[in-house]
Write a structure and sequence with these properties.
Elements (H helix, E strand, L loop, with lengths): L4 E5 L6 H17 L4 E5 L5 H5 L7 E4 L16 H6 L4 E4 L2 H5 L5 H13 L3 E6 L3 H5 L3 H12 L12 E4 L13 H18 L2 H6 L1 E5 L7 H5 L6 E4 L6 H8 L3
Parallel strand pairs: 1-2, 1-8, 2-3, 3-4, 4-5, 5-6, 6-7, 7-8
Bound molecules: 2-phosphoglycolic acid.
């Protein structure tokens, strides 16, 4: 019932030529795998070029978005700008935005509401630091990030929101959560959705796992009952590796 979503987060990588080449290769795989959705989030500066090679199936996304639709917000990108470039989704609250650039839950909530108001499907990223996990605070942190991230959001259609659980200690470190840790967190988040929304929201919202997903571990991660896809950083920059991830068993 939940269509798997494999999402590549390119972060601050690739020049225009490289971006177009990789997107074209991923678009071919997306065409060949009609039972799953595939998304890429290139840097803003590559979106126009990448769009030309995306085809019908590959979903284009922004890596962040402002809450306002225009104005004096130097360095920000507005939701209609992403829409104009063909984006259907946008990553919001990525751990690098939270921890490197200091975005807090309130700002992330504003970004998320701005995105949704303009018809972009947000991927709300949540996840605990190692310190928080070691202190036994994982679920408390996830609950705060979900509740504050979704504050004042009317959830009606599960297709309008995606959540990504990305333990901060697993991002770019080569360490993945165990499948049991991932499933436990995903099940907990689904329970939070059941509290805040309708039953169909909890059952239908896709929850992705992210953090050092690669060709070797994707099958085990995707086999967990509440894992509906993957948000992939480093391994999405290689066409071969990302193809293998998209074609998870
Ligand atoms: P990673 O990044 O796959 O390189 O760990 C995941 C992410 O930041 O979304």
């Amino acid at each position: 019932m939940r269509t798997p979503l494999i999402a590549g987060n390119w972060k601050m990588h690739l020049n225009l030529t490289e971006a177009a080449e990789l997107a074209a290769a991923v678009a071919r795989v997306a065409e060949a795998c009609p039972d799953r959705e595939v998304m890429i989030a290139p840097p803003f500066t590559s979106l126009a070029r990448v769009r030309e090679v995306c085809g019908e199936r590959l979903i284009l996304a922004g890596q962040n978005v402002c809450w306002e639709e225009k104005g004096a917000f130097t360095g920000e990108i507005a939701p209609p700008m992403l829409r104009e470039l063909g984006c259907r989704m946008v990553i919001i609250g990525h751990s690098e935005r939270r921890h490197v650039f200091g975005e807090d839950d309130q700002m992330i909530n504003r970004r998320l509401r701005g995105a949704m108001a303009h018809g972009l499907v947000p991927i709300l990223c949540i996840g605990e630091t190692l310190e928080e996990r070691d202190a036994g605070r994982t679920m408390e942190v996830l609950e705060r990030q979900v509740r504050q991230g979704l504050d004042q959001v009317g959830l009606e259609d599960p297709a309008r929101l995606v959540i990504a659980y990305e333990p901060v200690w697993a991002i770019g470190t080569g360490k993945t959560a165990t499948t049991a840790q991932a499933q436990e967190a995903h099940e907990f988040v689904r329970g939070l959705l059941a509290d805040t929304g309708e039953k169909n929201i909890a059952e239908g919202t896709r929850i992705l796992y992210g953090g050092s997903v690669n060709a070797a571990n994707v099958d085990d991660i995707m086999a967990q009952a509440d894992v509906d896809g993957a948000l992939v950083g480093g391994a999405s920059l290689s066409a071969e590796t990302f193809e293998r991830i998209i074609r998870f068993a």
